[in-house]
Amino acid sequence: MTSQVRFEEISPADFFYRNRDLAGFTNPARSLYMCVRELVENSLDATEIIKVPPNVWVQLEPVDDQNERVLRLTVKDNGIGVEGDKIPKAFGTVLYGSKYGFKQSRGTFGVGGTMALLYGQITTNQAFTVTSSTGGKEIHEYRMMIDIVENKPRVLEHNVLPNQRKWRGTIVRVTLEGDYAGSRSKILEYFTMTAVVNAHANIVFVDPKYRTYVFRRVIEDVPEPPKEGKPHPLGVDVETVNRLLANTRSRDIRSFLTSEFQRIGPKTAEEVLRLAGIDLGKKVKEITHDEVTRLVEAFRNYGKFRAPETSTISPVGVKFIEAGLRAIYKPEFLHVVQRPPSSYSGIPFVVEAAIAYGGAIEPSEEIHLLRFANKIPLLYDEKADVSWKVISERIDWSAYKVQRGMPVLVLTSICSPKVPYKTVGKEAISDRPEIERELTIAIRECARELRLHLSRLEKREAAKKRLSVYARYLPMIAKNSAYVAETDPPDVMPLLKSIGVTAKMVEDEAKAIAEELAS
Question: How far is Cα 27 from Cα 360, in angstroms, rounded to an integer?
Fold first, then answer.
C-alpha cells in the first residue's frame, strides 16, 4: 500500500505568501497600514545609521479611476541608500537583510519591507520599483518582481542614471490593493505617534485625495545609533553556542569565551569552564555536544555575570519624547522618565515612560495609551500588551488623584536588541516580569509627579473659590452696612486686593448677581 502523505519544501517567500496574516497583512485596510509602516520604518532606520535628520516623503496615489482600492505607494528618504548590486536581494528576497545582528533596530525578522512589496505583487500582479544611491556617481533604478517559489528577485529592468547632485537615499514605489477609507485613521495615528518619538524627523504624507499632512522637525539633535554587540552569556542557547563555535577564529575554548561573548574576561572564563567541567585549554574543534550543553548550563548557574552592555540600545531619549509630546499634544503637564538599563534572559533593554495632562489630550473614560517598541508605534492588540496590563492592573490611579474623564495620556517605550513580541506582526509585547517591573516603576514615578500637579490645581481652585466669595459678598456687606449706618460706603478694593481679589473679579461677580436677580 503506497503512502498518501505528500511532503514538499517551500521557500520563505512562499511561506509568507501562504501565511501573510502572521505578519499583520490580514485585510485590505490593515495591509495598507502595514505596507506604509514597514517602508517608513526602513527609511527611518536608513537615516539613523548615518546620523542624519530624517526627511521622509510618503504618498498614496489612485491608479485606477474605476477601482479606488488600487493605489500606488511611494516612500522616499534621505538615508544611507543601498549599493546597486545589492538592491535586488535586499528588496526581492524574504529573510534577507541587515537586521540580524545583535543590536536594536526597528525591523526584527527581515520580513516587513519585502513583505510589503510581496503583498503589492500578489494583489495587483504588478512590478515594484526601487531607486537608490549611496551618494556616489550613480543612481540605480530597478523594476522587479519576486519569484515566490524560489524566494529570489526577478529583475525586469535595470537603469543606471548619473547622480549629478550627489543624491543619497532610496525611493520605493509599489502598486497594491488597499482600503484607505478603512485604514485612514490608523495611518494618520501612526504618523502622529511616529512624530512623537522622532521629533528630529520631517515627515510628509500625501493621501489619495491629495490632502497633505506635515509633521515638522522640532529638534535638531540626532540620537546616537545602536552599535553591533556580542551576545551576553545568559542570552544564548545550545544552538547559538554551536554556531559561534563553527565560525570563531579562536583555537581554544577559553579564548573563545573571551572573544565571542560580552562580560567574560579571562578570570570569568576560567570559573565558568571549571563549573562546566571542561578543560581550560581544550581546542574548539574538540568540543563535544555534551560539553556545549554543560557550558550553557554553567552560564545559567554562574550567577556572577555583570549586566549586559547597553551600547546595542538606542532609547528614544527624554529630550526627544518631551519635544515630540509638546509639539503634538501641547500638554499643561508633562513628566518623562528613562529607567536605568536592565535585562531579561541576558538581553538588555531600556524602559521609558511619560505622563501628559491637559492641552490637546481629549478627556476620556480610559487613559490614552501610546505604546512604542524600538521606536515603532504599536496600534493594534493594545489589551494584549504588557503596558496595558501595567496601567490597568498594577497602577491604582485613584491614589494619584486621576479620575475617569480626565485628559491623561501615558506613553511607554521599550528598546532592546530583542523585543519579546507576541506575534510576527509586532503589535504586542509579552509580559516578561523584568519588563513589567520596570514599566511599573517608571509609570509610578510619572504618576507621583502628576499627583503633585493635580494637588496644586486643587489648591488653586479652592483658593479661587474663596476669593470669589470675598469678591461677591464683601462689597455687598460694605454697601448695606453703610446704608444702615447712613454713611457713604467705604472703599473695600484695597482690602480685597490685599487678599488677591482683582477689580475684574468684583465686576464679574456683580454681573453674575445681576443675572441671577434678573432670572
Answer: 32
